[in-house]
Design goal:
The structure is a homodimer of 184-residue chains.
Chain A lengths: L20 H19 L6 H13 L5 H8 L3 H13 L3 E6 L2 E9 L1 H21 L5 H21 L7 H9 L13
Chain B binds a DNA duplex (23 and 23 nucleotides) through helix 4 and strand 2.
DNA sequence: TATTGTTATACTCTATAACTATA
DNA sequence: TATAGTTATAGAGTATAACAATA
C-alpha cells in the first residue's frame, strides 16, 4: 500500500534506502568530500579554504561579503577563513579605494602556486571517485551536474528549494495527529 | 602557468570555482539536502531519521550497529536517533532472540504510514532540484550517480577515497617549505 | 539609517571514552 | 577477551548578536 521506490531488479537483499537518489547523491558527495579534504588538508579551512583561495586568485572578489554569499557561507566564517589564509601568506586583504568599508581579496604568489598543486590533486581525487565510469560517462555526469547546479545557483545562490517544500507539506496529507512545529 | 579548469566558453566573467565538479556536486547536494530537510522536518533526526525509518521498515536490520555502519554514522548517533524515533512511536527496538546483546529494528504501523508520506514528498523535492533537466536526462543522471555510489559504497561503505590521496600527496610536488602536519 | 567587517557568545552536531550486559 | 548498546563529556563547526567604521 505504498509504491516503494521500485528496486531495479527486485531480487537482491537489503535494498531499500540504497535505491534512491538522495542516498546515491549523499554517498558520492561524502566520498568526494573525503578525498577533497585529504587533497587540501594542508590548506587552512580545507575545501572551503580552497574555494576562497581560488576565488581570490581568479575572480578577484569585490568584497568579503560578496564572496561569502557566492560561496554560501556566513560572513563571519569568511572572516575566520581569511584570517587563517592570510596568516599562511596565501591571500591578502587590501582596502577597496572606492569603499573604505570593504576589502578586496587577492592571492599572493605563494597562494597561486599552491592553488596549482591543489587543482592537480583535486582532479585526481575526482577521477578516483568517478572510477566506476568511463571517460564518456564522466563527461556526461559532469555536464548534467553542471546544468543542475547552474540553475539551482541562479534561482537562489544559497537558499532555494526550501519554500517549495512548504507547499509540498501543505499539499500532502499528514497521517493525522502528527504535524509538529512547522516553523522549526 | 597552470592549466586552469578550462572555462566552458571563456567569455563569461567570474567563472573560476563555478566551473568545477566539486562545486557543482556541492551545490546540488546542498540544494537537495535543504529540500529533503524541509520535506522530513517533522521527523526526529531529519533526513538521517528518514533513512533509519526506511531501513527499519524495509531492510529489518539485524542490529543497530549493522545499520549504523550501513548508513555511515557512528553507533552512538544511532542510539540518539532511535531514542527519538522510538519516543515518537515510529520504530521499535526488539530483543534479538539469537543474541541478547543486539536489538532488532522494526517500523510501527504509524511509522510505515509516515514513511509513505515522506517518500512522496522526497520524490517531489528531488524533482524540484532536478528541474533543469527533462525526464530523460534525469534518468541518466540518476543512473550514473547510482553506479558511482554503488561502487564507492562497495569499495568502502564509509571511509574510502582517503588513502588514495596520501599517494596523491606524495606524488605531487609541494611548493617547497610548505608541507605541514600530514598526520592532521 | 544601512552596510562591511570583526568579535564574543551560544548552540548543534559529531566523535571519544567509559560503562553495562552479554558472548 | 571481545562485542552491542548506552551514557557522559569534549571538540569542531556554525550561527547569533553586539560592536566599530564607513556610507
Amino acid at each position: 500500500m505504498c509504491p516503494e521506490p521500485a528496486p531495479p531488479t527486485g531480487a537482491e537483499p537489503a535494498w531499500g534506502v540504497q535505491a534512491d537518489f538522495g542516498w546515491a547523491l549523499g554517498v558520492v558527495f561524502r566520498s568526494y568530500l573525503k578525498a577533497a579534504n585529504a587533497a587540501v588538508a594542508e590548506l587552512p579551512g580545507g575545501p572551503r579554504g580552497y574555494q576562497v583561495l581560488a576565488a581570490a586568485a581568479r575572480d578577484q572578489p569585490r568584497s568579503q561579503l560578496a564572496l561569502a554569499q557566492q560561496l554560501g557561507v556566513d560572513r563571519t566564517v569568511m572572516t575566520y577563513l581569511l584570517d587563517d589564509l592570510e596568516k599562511a601568506g596565501l591571500v591578502e586583504r587590501r582596502p577597496d579605494p572606492a569603499d573604505r568599508r570593504a576589502r578586496r581579496l587577492t592571492a599572493t604568489e605563494s597562494g597561486e602556486e599552491l592553488l596549482c598543486t591543489l587543482d592537480r590533486r583535486l582532479r585526481l581525487a575526482e577521477e578516483h571517485v568517478l572510477g566506476a565510469l568511463d571517460e564518456s560517462d564522466r563527461e556526461t555526469l559532469r555536464g548534467l551536474l553542471q546544468r543542475v547546479a547552474t540553475q539551482v545557483d541562479a534561482l537562489d545562490p544559497v537558499a532555494s528549494a526550501c519554500d517549495v517544500v512548504n507547499d509540498i507539506a501543505d499539499e500532502s496529507a499528514m497521517p493525522a495527529g502528527r504535524r509538529p512545529r512547522t516553523g522549526d
